[in-house]
Description:
This protein has 455 residues and is of the alpha/beta class. Helix content is 37%, strand content 16%. The chain contains 14 helices and 16 strands. A seven-stranded mixed β-sheet has the order 4-10-9-8-7-5-6, sandwiched between helices. Strands 11, 12, 13, 15 and 16 form a five-stranded antiparallel β-sheet that branches. Strands 1-2-3-14 form a four-stranded mixed β-sheet. Helix 12 packs parallel to helix 14 (432-452). The model has no long low-confidence stretch (mean pLDDT 96). The site of pyridoxal-5'-phosphate has 14 residues, from helix 6.
Amino acid sequence: xxxxxxxxxxxxxxxxxxxxxxxxxxxxxxxxxxxxxxxxxxxxxxxxxxxxxxxxxxxxxxxxxxxxxxxxxxxxxxxxxxxxxxxxxxxxxxxxxxxxxxxxxxxxxxxxxxxxxxxxxxxxxxxxxxxxxxxxxxxxxxxxxxxxxxxxxxxxxxxxxxxxxxxxxxxxxxxxxxxxxxxxxxxxxxxxxxxxxxxxxxxxxxxxxxxxxxxxxxxxxxxxxxxxxxxxxxxxxxxxxxxxxxxxxxxxxxxxxxxxxxxxxxxxxxxxxxxxxxxxxxxxxxxxxxxxxxxxxxxxxxxxxxxxxxxxxxxxxxxxxxxxxxxxxxxxxxxxxxxxxxxxxxxxxxxxxxxxxxxxxxxxxxxxxxxxxxxxxxxxxxxxxxxxxxxxxxxxxxxxxxxxxxxxxxxxxxxxxxxxxxxxxxxxxxxxxxxxxxxxxxxxxxxxxxxxxxx
Length: 455
Ligand SMILES: Cc1ncc(COP(=O)(O)O)c(C=O)c1O
C-alpha cells in the first residue's frame, strides 16, 4: 500500500509505456537530432545511447516528439523527484515569473518562508543557509566555508565520488585528461568502503571500516601537510552507481573528524529532498554533518541549490558572502518552497521508503534469476544494478550495461546508464503498480540481453 496522494500523477500501469513508432528514437526525433547535434557537442551517454527528443513531461511519464510515451525512471538526472511539472511547483514558478524575477540577494517573502522551512526540516543544527544556482556552485561555496571556519586549506574526498565540474569541485573527483590543468593544490582522494568491492574485510567477511580509517590516518600523516579542513563525501555515491556505505562508516568517520578538528561536509546534491526517503540521506546514518549541499530535487527542475552550515560556523558562512546573480531569486525560492510543501502534503517521504522496500524485494528476486546481476542496492528511490561477467570474479560487464540500457529504453523506459551499472532514480510520486511496470521492463531487457550475449 502506498501513502502517496499525488493524484495528478496517477496513471494506470497498463497505459504506459505507449510506443507509436516502429523504432525508438522515431523519425521526428532523428530530424531534431540532426539539427541539434550539428551545433551542440558533448552529450552524455544517457543521450548518446538512446537519442530521443522529448517534448513533454507529466508526472511519471515523458513524451517524445513522435508521440511515444515513456515511463520515467530517471527524473531527468535525479532532478524531477516529484515527477515532471508538478502543478504546485509549476504554478509557484509561473507566479514568481510574473511578479518579480530578480532582486539580487534582498529578502523577499517567499525567500524568507523557504529559509524558515529549510531550518524546520533539517534534523541537526544547520542554521546558516546560502542559496545558489547549481550543485557545483553550492559545493564550491561549501569548500570556502570549510576553509574560513578552520583556517585550514586541504580537502580529502573519495575515489569515484562526484561533486561538479568547476576547478575545486572537479578536484574532489576523478580526473580525466580533459578535466583541465589537473587537481588543484591541496585536494586529495582516498578509497571509501564499497560493500560489493571492499578493500578491507574482517575474517567474518564484513567490511572492516576501521581499516579504512586507519588508512586515512596514515594518509593524512604521509600525504598531506596536516592542514585538512574537511572530508567531503556523497552520502551515497550517485554517479559511481548507487554505492551505499556500510552502516557504521559515517558514525565512525564523524568521530574520526572530530578527533582531528576536521569538518565533515556531506554533498547531498543528489541524495536529498526525498530521493532516499528522507530529506537528508545522512539521516539514515544518524550522522550530523557540519556542511551540507543541496541541489537537483530541491527545486524539482528549477535550478536552485543550497548550502547549509552548522550553527557553530555561522561566522564563517557570513565571511564568504551569499551574493550571486541568480542564487535565491524569487522563482528559485518559489520552486524550492513548493517542492518541500508537496513532499509534506503528499506524504512523499513515506512513499519513497515504501517504494524502496518494493524495489529491494524485486531486485533481490531478479538477482536470483539472472546470473549477470552481480549486485543490487537501493534506498528509497535511489537504486543500482551492477552487471558482471562472472559472479566469482565480479568482472564488470559494460557491453551488457549498454545493451540493457538501450533495450529497456526502446521498450519505453527512460533511465540512466553508467557503464556496467544501471542506475534508477524514479520520481517518488509513483505507486507500487507503476514501479512494477518499470521493473518488468528492466527484467525483460536483462533476460533478453543475457541470452544474446551467451549467458
Ligand atoms: C553529488 C553531486 N554533487 C554536485 C553535482 C553537481 O551539480 P550540478 O550539475 O547541478 O552543478 C552533482 C551532479 O550530478 C552531484 O551528483
